[in-house]
Amino acid sequence: MTETLTIKTPDDWHLHLRDGAMLRAVAPETARHFGRAIIMPNLVPPVVTGADAAAYRDRILAALPDGSGFTPLMTLYLTEDTDPEDLARAHNDGLITAVKLYPAGATTNSASGVTDFDKVRPVLEKMAEIGCPLCVHGEVVDSEIDIFDREAVFIERVLDPIRRATPGLRVVMEHITTMQGVEYASEGGPDLGATITTHHLVINRNHILAGGIKPHYYCLPVAKREEHRLALRRAATSGDPTYFLGTDSAPHTDANKLLPCGCAGCFTATNTLSILAEVFEQEGALDRLESFASLNGPKFYRLPPNDSVVTLTKGAPIDYPKQIETGDGPVTVFDPMMPLHWRVET
Ligand code: NCD
Ligand code: ZN
Q1: How do residues 48-92 score in pLDDT, each as one tens digit?
Q2: Closest ligand (CA of 138)
Q3: What's the pTM?
Q4: Domains of the chain with CATH codes
Q5: DSSP assigned state of 181
Q6: In the structure, which protein residues have their CB atom closer than 6 angstroms to any atom of ligand 1?
Q7: Burial class (CB in 10 A: 0-12, 13-18, 19+), 239
């Protein structure tokens, strides 16, 4: 008997689509399986104004295959100069869905992010007033803090104080990677959500560093110890509406990954759904995949789930490309180091 699983079409609540030739190559990979995605604004230069977001949205729509029903949900990149009124207008017009906070220097193209959190206080207060969610890259950047501790320290030193100082601010802890992240999110009530990536459910830090360095498993926040990966798997498969899928699929060309100082990011758009089905099956939680991938995110963002459905069918291990070609050079697809048995019927 064929095993099948039909779920509401999933959404990706944290996605990098880039621009130009890379955008044209990667947008179809997500649009094939997903209804909507929160689009990260860390372009060069970043998406900082409503006008920037409108122009980027048009470029994304132009990059989609004909007949695609995919909807990009746009974000603004928070800077110390962000104009609260421009932001409020873009949100009220439905042009943007959220705003992204990068601590300056935390990750790829974060140089225009925030250093002095007091400077963005008026913007955060405006966001609380209008109900615009803040998506947070939760890592401190202090060189004296060990990279494996940066998420836990951020929660204590930055995130918790911001939330206490800004009642009503709706916050998404993006790509949590630690048990501290899981715990803090679980206690935050309905105004706090957390995304979990596909790859952080699969890899721990050994996969990056043991037996030779594996640049394709290097991303930010960096994968942590096994106990943290297990905490993320429990959270994702729990059914708790706090946690939802944000793949953080972050394409870089192999030329830019395989350098003495290579870029951070795992490209998972192509095989994410098959990987997730495998992970949820391993955890005995296939019946909760829909909550994580298709229901909890819309609930947090106060949007209806997608009307359409996708069906996954279990069978012989599937084939998927090891790389996708882009006009900028090949991009390696995330290797989950296990056969994937769930095919997404399109
Ligand atoms: C992202 C990128 O490449 O834009 N990289 C990553 O490792 N996740 C940036 C980010 O989300 O931190
Ligand atoms: Zn990201």
Answers
A1: 999 999 999 999 999 999 999 999 999 999 999 999 999 999 999
A2: 1
A3: 0.98
A4: 3-344 (3.20.20.140)
A5: H
A6: 16, 42, 107-108, 137, 219-220, 248, 250, 264-265
A7: middle
